[in-house]
């Protein structure tokens, strides 16, 4: 039986899922369908990925063919920055559910702790970061408390079974917990050997919040954005130490990186369009690293974060993001 993580909401979340960021619309339906055939049950999507309609088509095909039932799947989506105002949350969730062709999400996350001015989906969807679709940043006055209260109403109305946050750091989590009636079930963060964030992981464990790691292979996800620090770093799957550890276990370097995360209690959401890699990622749970090897990999930590606003915006806008 595939390993699961028990959430504080009472539900079981598969520990190994499938990430949908940068899955091209032209192939998304087939990718999701093939991933279900390969054995994946958790799919991590978002408004901002712009492919929820196609991903939902892949789910519908698998269900229609009897491969799975809806209740066998754990579907995750996220609230984009432009919908943080309290009265905007439920309408956009209903749109996203309609895009997926489902009645509820298993988990719905605040994508970033960044509130931007509303953009009508009829004007542009997904809205992206810029109000005008080009270069203008317009912050909203919505607080995390306002947004989280609206998120909690999703649970009461059956629109999402669990709710959580993504890209939050310690101070924001503690701020949220002060007023939350429903605590976050999960925290999704960038996490790889170059960015271990052990103190944040300790906080989440202490508060009973499950952690999901994205970008498990480090700079590999960000090379296309031509970020200087991503380009200069050795890709983790090509690092000689990682390759040496992989050889010892007769495993792929990618499997070692994924197992380093899951063995330390995190969930993972790697993706691939290739069936062989899909199977390899799913199989990464089926061996154990020694404590010494886990410590060696953790020793790669350089506190280097790739997914942050400083990488995408002119410096005059960075005050918005703290």
TrEMBL record:
One of its Pfam families is: Aldo_ket_red
Identify the pathway: Carbohydrate metabolism; D-xylose degradation
Molecular-function GO term, any one:
D-xylose reductase (NADPH) activity
Q: Which Gene3D superfamilies match?
A: NADP-dependent oxidoreductase domain
Which keywords label this protein? Answer: Carbohydrate metabolism, NAD, NADP, Oxidoreductase, Xylose metabolism
Ligand binding (substrate): 111
Task: Name the residues annotated as site: Lowers pKa of active site Tyr.
Answer: 78
Question: Which InterPro entries does the UniProt record give?
Answer: AKR, AKR2D, Aldo/ket_reductase_CS, NAD(P)_OxRdtase_dom_sf, NADP_OxRdtase_dom
- Can you tell me which residues form the catalytic site? 49
Q: Where is the NADP-dependent oxidoreductase domain?
A: 17-300
Task: Give an example GO biological process.
Answer: D-xylose catabolic process
Q: Which family does it belong to?
A: Belongs to the aldo/keto reductase family.
Q: What is this protein called?
A: NADP-dependent oxidoreductase domain-containing protein
Species of provenance:
Parachaetomium inaequale
